[in-house]
Amino acid sequence: MKISTGISNIFKINKLKSVLLIVLVWQIINMIVGKDYLVPSPFETLQRLLDIIVNINSLFNILITLWRMVFSFLLSFIFGIVLGVLSGVKENVEEILKPFVNILRSTPTMSIILLSLIWLGSEGTAIFVCVLIVFPIVYTNILKGMKNINNKYIEMAMVYKVSNIKILRYIYIPSIMPFLISSISLGLGLNLKVLIAAEVLSQPKYGIGSMLYNSKINIDTSAVFAWSIIVILITIIIEKLVLKNIKGANNGIF
């Protein structure tokens, strides 16, 4: 217990040192450039960050982006799991979906955003783009998990007439779970990045991306930095909360 606590404290100290080093380098660059409208100081950015956080309109924009992120990721997640499992069970389904998934992987994100703007307008673009970008990640990981299942275990379960529920619980879920966690870890961060980019280009009425674009138009660089920090913090918090809950649920199942 003492050893694990000591290691945990060391990691926390190292993280703090990394943050302080980043702030120091940031301040040095600010002093070298000498123009706050190009590179604002950490203190100026912190002030702008606090102004954004206490502003009700800013909080509403953050909530709208979070709603888009959750909704789009859930769609990607559901489609990815369902089609990944089907492809793992039926080889012909995998062959049918393979060209489609490869096209989604290869198509530039910018092309998808521009086409979505033509088809769906500014409000629907962000969600549609996120689903198309994140779906291949979830699908591929689930498919790998399905192929990771040892068929001998399933055959043995069939011989001993084990119920389908127990086969699902003790064979399928443990095999898929590491790949599921990996897809969530990779997908969540990418989902938010793509969403912000789509919002910046499509400029919906509300959203963090729209606020970033407005800050750029007004040459408010400190606001651009502040909004970027908000996105980073949101990504870290969500990933930690989601992955912690999934691992807890996983431990509870088994």
UniProtKB/TrEMBL annotation:
Q: Which SUPFAM superfamilies match?
A: MetI-like
Keyword Transport among UniProt keywords? yes
Q: Which GO terms describe its cellular component?
A: plasma membrane
Q: Report membrane topology.
A: Multi-pass membrane protein
Record keywords, A-Z: Cell membrane, Membrane, Transmembrane, Transmembrane helix, Transport
What InterPro entries does the record tag this protein with? MetI-like, MetI-like_sf
Q: This chain belongs to which protein, by name?
A: ABC transporter permease subunit
Which organism was this protein described from? Helicovermis profundi
Where is it localised?
Cell membrane
Domain ABC transmembrane type-1 positions: 62-242
Kindly list the biological process annotations in GO that this record carries: transmembrane transport
Transmembrane region(s): 20-39, 59-88, 100-120, 126-146, 167-190, 224-243
